Please model this.
Amino acid sequence: MAGVFGEGKPYADDQVEQMMAEKQSIKAFDAWASGFIRHVEKKGVVAKVEDERAAKSTTNV
Model:
């Protein structure tokens, strides 16, 4: 199954050196990471602490 690292292997053989040899899993992970990056980029800049402190409450009026 693509995207599952070390499936059916002993835990000791599921280390980064062995994982890098699993090209299909790496490819699936890279695709997931790229999608996640695009999702986060669409959200825009995260507010700074100063912005949060300056915001007016809409619930405790």
Observations:
- DSSP finds three helices and no strands in the chain.
- The helical segments are 16-19, 23-43, 49-54.
